[in-house]
Amino acid sequence: MDRLSNTVRPYAWGSTTLIPELLGVAPTGEPQAEMWMGAHPGAPSGTGRGSLSDIIDTDPARELGRPALEAFGPRLPFLLKLLAAGAPLSLQVHPDRSQAQAGFAAEEAAGIPLDAPHRNYRDDNHKPELVCALTPFDGLCGFRPPVETADFIAALDVDSLKPYVDLLHAHPEEAALREVLTAVLSADPEKTAHTVAEAAAAAERLGGPYAPFAAIAHHFPGDPGVIAAMLLNHVRLQPGEALFLGAGVPHAYLGGLAVEIMANSDNVLRCGLTPKHVDVPELLRVVRFEAGDPGVLRPEAAPSGEELYDTPIDEFRLSRFVRPQGAAPVDLTLATPQILLATEGRPKAGELTLAPGESAFVPAGEKVELTGMGTVFRATVAV
Fold first, then answer.
1. What is the CATH topology of the domain spanning 8-45+78-140+236-297?
2. Which residue among the candidates 270, 317, 320, 378 is catalytic per the annotation?
3. How far apart are CA 254 and CA 233, in angstroms?
4. pLDDT tens track of the chain, all 383 residues?
5. Is 40 annotated in some ligand binding site?
6. Do the annotations mark residue 173 as ligand-binding?
7. CA neighbours within 13 Å on the CB side: how many for 132?
8. Would you say 92 is a known binding-site residue?
9. If DSSP states are collapsed to H, E and C, what string results for 273-306?
10. Those residues with Cβ within 8 angstroms of residue 208's Cβ, 6 or more apart along the chain or in another chain
11. Which residue ranges does the chain devote to CATH 2.60.120.10?
12. Looking at the domain covering 1-7+46-77+299-382, what would its CATH class be?
């Protein structure tokens, strides 16, 4: 078992305080957006034996175990993160596996460099993800029913939004959502900026359910993503609650601290709230134009004390242990690789004491027992 040293990514949207508060260290004044735990080539975790990616490359059968190796090949198929949003992330969707494979192959054939700003597909994998709140956590997830959105937008009383209201009322669900999102992202930028400014002022005045969209507009004045965001469900997760984001589901994280786990991929198609490339035709091909409840997940408890966040994904499985004083030891030994992350207390994994924000990698088949008081998230694969 290896204690991990992890890279913190300083993306501009990151909170300056949330990760330092969890770690019990002084803020630097700079944004600290994501702490990565895993073997992603962009920032693999370090160990006393070298980087986690090098350890797995040297002996994948020993580190990953036969079930994971046969299912996913010689790589850790998930990435675990602490995510600390101090400002909205880009509005985005992820492709399914077949879309990613086709898109990656097409861009490779076209000779587009992997690091090109206009490249959509950095790899050939899908990127489902699960985010679990550690503090109250705000996000947008999936489309609202078009009629509800029409009433929501109509209440802003902005003349240039009225054609969108009419479209949302006049068409079947899928067509309405597709036509409005297409119109929003294809509109004249100058006119859109004026519409966004009017809508933001109205949202500020109305407050309540409109307040999140006024805040988004404050961070991204004039961005068409502000109007696109109004098509989506606003969700506030309480600590311990989670959201699963499958392929084609538009989403954005707005603020708070969370544990996030995802399949190892960098494939993102953006809808707005970003200065980065937005490929509207490809985005519209990938988005699933279906309205529905965002589906807040709450963990399912087992007799062992493990609480599982159930998702339909094989690449990752996330659970947690919330251990009171005097809790009995729990055997965590699995035939698959694990990353353990403490978020409260000072629990022990084997001989390692884990303070909040500290993590450990457990190779497949290695015997490990969880003792002590605190909260520990366990990331592994579902095979």
1. Jelly Rolls (2.60.120)
2. 270
3. 12
4. 999 999 999 999 999 999 999 999 999 999 999 999 999 998 999 999 999 999 999 999 999 999 999 999 999 999 999 999 999 999 999 999 999 999 999 999 999 999 999 999 999 999 999 999 999 999 999 999 999 999 999 999 999 999 999 999 988 999 999 999 999 999 999 999 999 999 999 999 999 999 999 999 999 999 999 999 999 999 999 999 999 999 999 999 999 999 999 999 999 999 999 988 899 999 999 999 999 999 999 999 988 899 999 999 999 999 999 999 999 999 999 999 999 999 999 999 999 999 999 999 999 999 999 999 999 999 999 98
5. no
6. no
7. 25
8. yes
9. CCCCCCCHHHHHHHCCCCECCCCCECCEECCCCE
10. none
11. 1-7+46-77+299-382, 8-45+78-140+236-297
12. mainly beta
| pTM recorded for the entire structure | 0.95
Alpha-carbon distances, residue 111 vs 97, 100, 105, 217, 283 (angstroms): 21, 16, 10, 37, 21
Q: Is 94 annotated as a binding residue?
A: yes
270 is annotated as an active-site residue = yes
